[in-house]
Design brief:
Number of strands: 8
Strand order of the largest sheet: 1-7-8-6-5-2-3-4
Number of helices: 11
Radius of gyration: 18 Å
Largest sheet: 8 strands, mixed
Distance between the termini: 40 Å
């Protein structure tokens, strides 16, 4: 079993670590303040962002913790695929200079106006990111890679282009080689760890205006892909826990972090 889960070459090449058990209180408080503000608002698509926070509240707080370690408030940041806007709003709230990019920001225009966010309409799969070369110190690409359905090389080359030399990419995505991913593949014949069936994921194009999960990836696949684009991998963080403290999966993840539900890759632009 250990041999099946362990790749010695991968372990030697990439520095990996496990996420902490809980995010910092100040990060979680910041996310909660944004959530409470959204609850008090009145707009048509309010149910979508609030439903999102039911499963991603702590992850967003951990995202803030991660960025605080690696990015200063003087740095220019862009959050690609910014909707439903909680991370951008929370980062702005604590003093970061954040731009956002989204395929259809008008869907949550009320939130953009309330939090005074700089969100630009752009389809990152088909359009050039509307900034000059070497413009940003950091790019956030969280929970986006698994949604790319046209040409991930184009999208990631654009991200590389707008990053300064040694600028940082923060990419998070579901971990296909998580406990759920392995169990789904072996017992249900599906290659998903987080998503639902193919029909439901494609139907999101009609319901929400963006694609669901095309496919999910292992940490090794992501790292090899990014290196070919022009990134150096700085760190892989295995993230997330299963819901209940007495869940055997939660205990197993503590012993073997690479079975966690999510992964974050921190990489620098090689120029």
């Amino acid at each position: 079993m250990y041999v099946f889960l362990h790749d010695k070459k991968f372990s030697k090449k990439y520095f990996t670590e496990a996420e902490g058990l809980i995010p910092r209180k100040e990060s979680l408080d910041c996310v909660d303040e944004v959530i409470e503000a959204v609850k008090s608002m009145d707009f048509d698509m309010k149910e979508w962002p609030l439903k999102y926070t039911l499963h991603h509240r702590e992850r967003i707080a951990f995202d803030i913790d991660l960025l605080r370690k690696h990015v200063t408030q003087k740095d220019k940041i862009i959050d690609i695929g910014a909707l439903p806007l909680f991370l951008s709003a929370a980062l702005k709230k604590i003093g970061y200079s954040v731009y956002g990019l989204d395929i259809e920001p008008a869907r949550l225009q009320s939130m953009i106006d309330t939090f005074e966010l700089k969100i630009i309409k752009c389809n990152a799969e088909t359009q050039n990111i509307p900034f000059e070369n070497d413009f940003f110190d950091a790019v956030i690409f969280h929970e986006m890679f698994e949604h790319l359905r046209i040409n991930p090389i184009f999208t990631m080359k654009e991200i590389w282009r707008v990053l300064k030399p040694e600028g940082k990419l923060f990419l998070s995505t579901p971990n296909l080689k998580s406990i759920n991913g392995i169990m789904d593949f072996l017992h249900q014949d599906i290659a998903y760890s987080i998503a639902s069936d193919m029909y439901t994921e494609y139907k999101k194009l009609l319901d929400l205006g963006h694609m669901g999960h095309i496919r999910e990836y292992t940490a090794k696949e992501i790292c090899i892909f990014l290196e070919k684009i022009g990134f150096n991998i700085e760190k892989i963080v295995f993230r997330g826990a299963y819901l209940y403290n007495n869940d055997p999966k939660r205990c197993l993840v503590k012993l073997i972090p690479r079975l966690s539900p999510f992964i974050s890759v921190i990489a620098t632009a090689r120029k």
